[in-house]
Amino acid sequence: MTITLPIRVFVYGTLKRGEPNAKVMMDTEGHQRFLGVGRTKTPFPLIVASKYNIPFVLNEPGKGYVSFPYTVPLILAPLYC
Q1: CB 28 within 8 A of CB 21
Q2: Structural domain harbouring 53
């Protein structure tokens, strides 16, 4: 028996609601659950870089951004992390 306890995933950039890749966080089988709008306790800078315009967070204190936490089953966590 596999235990699939939910974990929290904090998404930002194009995965946030209303952004182009938000559909990745939508699940017709009900595995993911939107928890609301959130922020990191310590702000971190989000930048968009590379020729593909990929957003990512730098591991340095700076200006924070709004983010969207979800719960996902532990078994699905590798898909999001």
Answers
A1: no
A2: 6-71
